[in-house]
């Protein structure tokens, strides 16, 4: 039997839990704690530090420890939320920068990692500790996310889980998971048969409010609200600023001062949840090693929180209003997240909903992880994760998809010794830092043994579904009945023995914000309004069209957010490019079908005009829209160059340029490429420029050295010939440095050539190649013959006359080239409203 790990991947702390004998059990980490700080760092020797050991090291080297990376995951550098999050980081936090693909990168030791990779490092440690504690391998996971996470953030969390070696069976909203943990059963404790429950989830970095409807076998999310930049870390920040003000103008510029002040603020916040005052001592402080001591009172702290508390209450009231509910309609308020321990937070909720309505029956620090484990126990089927397979409803005990053989279990992983990002066992080299991984093997957890309740056999592996002697069913990860204590099979929300309701079921969740498609005018065509329950059935949209304008592709871009007038101000969900090389002409109707699956993944089907129906697999691009546009424009330049000069290019040039052009085309479609994007566009632009110059230099050197005798100095012609041959040799092997040197040599000789002679020789060459219209070609060839006659007779005046004549004809030919050449490049178009 494959066991699934429930993971609360928190901003400040992370917790794991699993279903053990029918109840959710938190798995302690290697330090014996229930929660693992979401901190990742390295020491001076490059040793990985995770959790409390990373926080301990932060006092010595704050810049080497990454915290609160969840606020950055799945977001782009130019996202307003990212810039706001970075503005609240301590001054001595690890360096961050914009990645070459427009995302965020954080430095861990000597390496720059994405938030996904940092989260994978943390998840890998959580997995290892959980396996050691439970004695079973966890190759599947249910991971929770804030309810207000958009599609890109959900996709990023799923990718982090995959990197850590999990098959991510489900991504669940944190408030929904927490409600699982509370096990609210209607008909008990005065609750109505169908109860309205509000989950107030205030963690370290995010704030969510969910309004749920719960009944026998029914569990649905009715409304959502939240703030991805509000949590305990922000409480720490206001206390940090308050302490700095209390220093009386003293500049805290000593090594480690920023860490000590932020650490003292966090400690004071925690103490003020249980007492009226907190004594703060800052020492050493400043470059001279002074100290400061003072008292922070709860009333002062609560005054600092006035703005945050107001924002929370406004969010709660907004959710109630959108659902047409009043505080009196809510039968339970469930407190989730460590920051709900702040008395002012609880007092505000009690004032709004009443003292008896607010419940803290479950530890708010572990409620979400408990709920993730319960969600795992409610799952009896899986969906195939393959991009090309749509198989659903696969039995949860399957190892692989029966349709396409895609594994439904995560691989065994190893930690890279260089950058620490996990990679599948037997990977030859780390895909991040290229470190050798060939000799590394994953360590298997110590196997736990269980006793059969029927025959007493005590050496059954914990992963076994039945006893090895008597075939009695063992614990398979389902829920325990609160009535008769029977441990049920996974997937049941009511007891198979006595029929008792478990007080929870797989939730019907809703979208937090509108999801729509970008239109040609830049607006957002809403496909799924905010509050749409999912999974959904396919539904058809008929009011769209494609206005061809000679385009050769249709681009489907989907965004999530409330900015309906400007699609690109929202979060990018994914894109798809339908290519139609024969071109799009006129106005064509677009028929679109859309649906959301259980993980809020968007599926599309479409038909353009009377054409065939197509399926679209959206790509959640790691490529920013600006990078994609630049890549597409540069790809057009490559296409023009290759189409124009293909017959004149060497094999080496053709291979290199085609490879770069293919990668540019992929970036233009929003797809990732195997090469690093760091400087790629600049390199690609430079390569095209060099090849253009080199081809021109070689042709020009050959042309002038061949047609120049009698018109130019012999020494100049000999130098041109040698330089042109050097360019040719370098082009044969695509030796870019040699090409650059030889090309620059030709270009330094160019000013020594009489412009009239150069223009005349080029005009003659184009005419001889039949590149000019017939009339112009005849004139140029006649002028050529006259020039040769004048050269043979030594008539300098006649030579000058013909050179001037050829110059005029060459200019005329250049103008005709501009008129005749089709400079249009393939373009993509966005759908329009009919």
Describe the 3D structure.
With 834 residues, this protein is α+β, with helices and mostly antiparallel strands. Among the domains are: 232-308, Actin, Chain A, domain 4 (Alpha-Beta Complex), CATH 3.90.640.10; 511-622, Substrate Binding Domain Of DNAk, Chain A, domain 1. It has 19 helices and 37 strands. Strands 1, 2, 3, 4, 11 and 12 form a six-stranded mixed beta sheet that branches. Strands 15-14-13-18-19 form a five-stranded mixed beta sheet, with helices on both faces. The longest helix is centred in the last third of the chain and has 28 residues, at 680-707. It starts with a strand and ends with a strand. It holds the Pfam family HSP70. It comes from Streptomyces roseolus. Keywords: ATP-binding, Chaperone, Nucleotide-binding, Phosphoprotein, Stress response.
Name the features.
elongated; phosphoprotein; chaperone; Hsp_70_fam; Substrate Binding Domain Of DNAk, Chain A, domain 1; 19 helices; alpha+beta; 6-stranded mixed beta sheet; Hsp70 family protein; stress response
Short description, anyone?
By secondary structure, this protein is α+β, with helices and mostly antiparallel strands. Among the domains are: 77 residues, ATPase, substrate binding domain, subdomain 4 (Actin, Chain A, domain 4, Alpha-Beta Complex), CATH 3.90.640.10; 112 residues, Sandwich (Substrate Binding Domain Of DNAk, Chain A, domain 1), CATH 2.60.34.10.
